[in-house]
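Minutes, project check-in
Item: structure for the 290-residue chain
Input as provided by the requester:
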Amino acid sequence: MENLTQIFDLFRLSPATFAVVSTMFGLIVGSFLNVVIFRLPKMMEREWKRGCSELHGETPGVEPTYNLVAPRSACPACSHKITALENIPVLSYLFLRGKCSACKAPISPRYPLVEVLTGALAGFIAWRFGFGMTAVAAWLFAFALVALAFIDFDTQLLPDDITLPLLWIGLLFNFDHGFTDLRSAVAGAIAGYLMLWSVYWLFKLVTGKEGMGYGDFKLLAAIGAWFGWQLLPAVILLSSITGSVIGLSLIVLARHGRNVPIPFGPYLALSGIAALFWGHQLTQFYLPGY
């Protein structure tokens, strides 16, 4: 216990040390987020199929265990089980030169990208907020947004397993005036959901098409729960501008079909990160002195 207290004191007195250790911690979390990003949609799909079978009165077959822990990670090309030494964040990718040690199939560079991104966010959060519960809460928020952004990019899904706990944790953290007061947090959650819900139905009534998914409503509600209603205009504006610029670039440069849906979650997540670090400065543009 005394050693733990000394470590905490070191983190309080040396922000640089806390930031470095936090970056290393973030790299490890990033490795786990890669598992979440890859497996959670597949777990959801299995659950949907099981539910459909039960609705049709069928008995679901027994399937091998598949969750965030089991089975062990393996190469998708040759099923080689990833060893502990091959699972060190970033370093293993560099040592293996981006290839499977068994079959030499290329490993997606996105794995180290997620690890580096998560590590950088964890380190910057530590530097920005210092040692304490605010940094821990900010870690949870940022890690959840990283997972959601990449899952939505891959599958156009924003799982309730992440968005709903994120919303409730935001309200809980603001119960004692974390990033905002509880009244603003509750209003932010309600307003965040209703804003995109209204846009969804307006777009559907005008065009007959669905412009976004319900997961987007829940994600904006979660961001509102963390930072209050005051930041919602900035989050909506930033995500819309970013989404429009990237979407048009994909259509013009990458010949992305206009009828191919573009996920909105990554842009909401990016705006949520901006709100985490620069929320006060953003609100000053339209709520000066608030």
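Outcome recorded: The longest helix spans residues 15-55.
No further action items on this chain.
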